[in-house]
Amino acid sequence: MVHKNLPLESMGWGAAVFVIVGVMAGLPTGVSAQANPYTMVQDVQTGEVLFGRQCSVCHGVGAGGGEMGPDLTTGEFEHSSTDAGLFNTISEGVPGTAMTGINRTRTDQSVWQIVAYLRSVSGGERVAVAGDASAGERLYRGGGCTGCHVIDGAGGRHGPNLSTIGDRRSPDRLLSDLVDPDERVQPRWWRMRVTHRNGTRVEGLRMNEGTYSLRILDMDDELWSFLKKDLLVSERIETSSMPAYGDTLTDGELEDLVAYLYGLTRADQ
Ligand code: HEC
Ligand code: HEC
Q1: What digits encode the pLDDT tens for the residues 233-249?
Q2: I need a surface site. Which of 108, 144, 169, 175 has the fewest CB within 10 A?
Q3: Which residues of the chain are in CATH 2.30.30.100 domains?
Q4: Closest CA to 258 of 152, 123, 145
Q5: Is the CB of 116 under 6 A from ligand 2?
Q6: Which helix (H) or strand (E) holds 235?
């Protein structure tokens, strides 16, 4: 697959530098597992006004999504769906994207009020699931998932850490993650396929990339370093390395896996 324009990529370094500077300067690094202290009707109203002024330009009127920012009313959030997680996303932003936080310009209270407003327009409630979570856990351990994913500190580095995936995903979305992994692959999980001028071909995750060099982690967990000038071919693969499980697992097994994953939350740790 050929490279598309990559706004996320080109902004990545600046954002990374910003985050490091922020930590060194001892700036607030967000709240931890805290519930929203501002959830009264007035808070929701104030949050709505603030949202209209600062956020709707990208996220659309009523948070329904715009050209420059995603829909925030679906009840599903990529980054975190707990109150504290939303607080952190809003105050700190999402590094490497147009979503810059409002940390410097707003008080904690107004950020919480925006969280209250977003809750009022989205339906991110916990729901009951049919599957058997312990059967799901056995499938997870026996099914090769651990080679790519970390849960509670153990596992591979080829896919996202799933330790608190239940906070970020609804059961429906988890099911689609399992049966249709190519649907939305974040740039972080794109892979590179390169050919060195000595004939070596390597495919894997791009771990870091500088002006002159590139490091790739292949599927055998071997880390390769290349000088870019030595590479004859380098292609970006934008599909997921994760197999689609719709055909290899039964509906019941998929339900069990979803039940297991949905139960992985901060609260259960
Ligand atoms: C300049 C455009 C822009 C503005 C202004 C902006 N956002 Fe965003 N926001 C984005 C983009 C783009 C993303 C998606 C980031 C990504 O790729 O993960 C995002 C992501 C988010 C997310 C995470 C969604 C998820 O799925 O986890 C939240 C929550 C959010 N914005 C809230 C806000 C709030 C609240 C404000 C106002 C205080 C705001 N944004 C202002 C562009 C913007
Ligand atoms: C070869 C590596 C690999 C294997 C094996 C694998 N995954 Fe994944 N998985 C990934 C990658 C890469 C992503 C991120 C890209 C995407 O969305 O597909 C991902 C994404 C996910 C997501 C969405 C998480 C998120 O934050 O976006 C879930 C849930 C998930 N995998 C569960 C599983 C389960 C359960 C199994 C075993 C049945 C499994 N994976 C096997 C590589 C793998």
Answers
A1: 999 999 999 999 999 99
A2: 144
A3: 191-237
A4: 145
A5: no
A6: strand 231-237
